[in-house]
Amino acid sequence: MGVPESEIVTNPAKMEAQLASLYRRAAGVEGQEALIPVVTTKLLNLIIYASSENEAESASHDAGEIMGRHPSRTIIIDASQHAAGQTQAAISAVCGITERGERMLCGEIIELHTGGVEEDIVGWVMPLLVPDVPVCLWVIGEIPCGMREFEAAMEVSDCIIVDSRRFSDLHRGLELLIGVCTAGAPVRMVQDLSWSAIQPWRELTAQHFDPQAARGCLYNLINVNINYASGERENSPASAALLFASWLMNRLGIEPVAASFDGSSELFIDGKLGANVIRFTLSSENTGSTPGAIKSVVMQCDNDGGTASFVTRSESAGEVAVSEECRGMCYPPRVLEMPSQNEPTLVSRALEIGQRDEVHYESLGVALRILALLGD
Amino acid sequence: MSVDLSINPLRKGLIRERAAEPCIFVIFGGTGDLSRRKLLPALYHLHLSNLLPRGFAIVGYASSEMDDSGYREMAHQAISKSPTHVPTEGKTWDQFAESLYYVKRSEDTEHSLDGLKQRVNDLDAAIGTEGNCLFYLAIPPFRFAETAEGLGEVSLAGNNNTRGWRKLVVEKPLGEDLESAKALNRDMQRFFDEEQIYRIDHYLGKETVQNILVFRFANEFVEPLLNAEHVDNIQITVAETLGLEGRGGYYDSSGALRDIVQNHMLQMLSLICMNRPHSLDAGAVRDAKIELFRSIHPVEQSKVGDIALRGQYTSGSISGEDVPAYTQEKDVAPNSTTETFAVLKLFIDNPRWKGVPIYLRTGKRLAKRVTEIGITLKKPTEMFPRAGGSGQNVLALNIQPDEGISMRFDAKVPGLAYQVQPVRMDFKYGTAFATSVPEAYERLILDAILGDQSLFPRADATEATWAICDPILKAWLANQVPLYTYKPGSWGPREAMEFIERDGRRWRRL
User: Which residue range(s) make up the domain with A113?
Assistant: First the structure.
């Protein structure tokens, strides 16, 4: 999707008229010969809340890509203090040719620069929401609880997207997140991009145990090693690795009983399943990949007196290798395409989930218990 | 600690809570047109989407002289040529290619399937497919029964004496009339239980056809309108601009009624008219369909002329290109009376649809390629002067090519007077959802592997639809009614217009 036209607007009442004018220009009907029919489709309102200039800039870039999969009206709230003076908006029509090439499909991005004037935001955003389609609020950085404009935006939202990988204090951030999850309107959904990022890892891990013959191993686990790229934050494990371990514990009924963090690269968690104690090791290494990205998961279990291993390992940015070492129930190793993990893709994936993800909520609960053990 | 190993606990909350089980996918006719154009590309797409099980093998079975590597090369060429343009190089392709095997059909009719059985058993042991095997019959229908029997004889059929599951997938035409359809069902059921048989109607794999149920039952404003109180008539159209495309031999022994009406059109009719199933499970949906089919007013052979009409195209031109008459097409008998155009008027004998005519219209070499279900509502009492249109609301479900739903309703013409004019409101799949629509075969193949029969017609449904068409077929075969002609690029014979105009209605202009 490209951004053919944009305009600055200082009066919210004129916004719709100026958007209409943009579309006419995109269609080439204002003084130009007509190109192809322009269709505006808005399946949702996406509000992006950026509290810094950098976040607002990256949001603006990502919004166009997201619109390619989710035609929407996107409103970017730049709540940073950098732009002084009155609130103003930049509007853009983002258009792309449909698959068959017979229409130009357009959505729109409205960037609101508030200059820190909080009270303006509600007055701008609410009238701009397209009626009768869902409102999703994507908070790029920390959850700005207590900020009036954020809470106003949250009030009208059906779903909230956050990214726990960006939380400076993971424990505090996840606590806030579970608060957002459980408070407010019962239909509100919360999506965490970190959780979206581990979805392919969950799927591939589950695939090891699709054959019934392999399933017994899940209940005879000895240890699980999760390796991830360093650099997400210094004083606690990466969010994705922690969520993955929490998910596995939740699905298998493993109760975390002890946890220790060496302060830099390794987190050890002991979990109990019946009489068995299973050791989870979350370790980081400097790989040059996206900070916090999972690089490998190795699960070992007792297999009729021997040890079986189930390995899922990132080979490169786009490929993941799956292999097993065991007796009598293993398939040959294979390499699979790893779905893109960039932010617009993760947001798109989160937008496709239409209901509360109970497994996510339960896993969050386990993650908080692990973090609490670390604090003890 | 006791644990339930029958389910994979890690699947809860994932996009697919059920995964396909390891299996061997045997394609009879593995080198044929259907395999090359549809089945192998669909299987490769499923592989790319990581939807196939880890333990998986595809065995092509055909008469061509070829080995595994030759079959892999053939598949590579076929998939490379498919219109979806997926990459067919690199590790992902190599892994898919490694799962392809080939068995040449034996000339020894006594033991023709022994080689296949041996290969299936070897692969089962080597790959760990747990005895699961699916047989896809991409072969001429007259060989379905003997193939099912052959599989039974080498113990590759029923569930009783084997490990794992066995499934049989067949595709239309499933019989050529009621009697032969019953015989085919009987023959297949001698070796496979009904739960093991998957009858493919690829229309049911289309997103837009599946959306009929969603549109009806997920939207409160739709269902209350769909009954005799509000609906004046329903028109289902399957129009093609193409001719026979090299299928003259098949088509001349089939015709529009058998090729399109008996299966695709009646299936669409059932989806739009059936009562709400109590759930979405295969049994409930199929029960609701069969109830509908059995409610369709029976046609008497002697009165076929009142409710059906047939036509055949002459020579002419479409889009400036000269096209031959049907009887001049390759592999068509010069004196053939096979219909290339058919219209039917059906009624449903239940209180919900009492008196509402359902018109079916299909043909080749028509003006436009379009598949549509048009529901015309009754005319309200006129209150306002009309600037145009009939004053009847129309709800149109566009199945292909412009997939979507449109609604025609009246609006006030801007001005000082109350004058109304029809306007149209459109929903288009292509512009509302930016994601691409999966191919029908991908969905149907995956469902068959998963064991979900919702989208596959049951034996009683195929027999019920043949029972609806049988009297018409007999009357047409006996030439009891005229065969009208029409020019390519038209909407069929002039008599087809008169057919509906006698009821005070018109065909929808598509």
Answer: 2-157
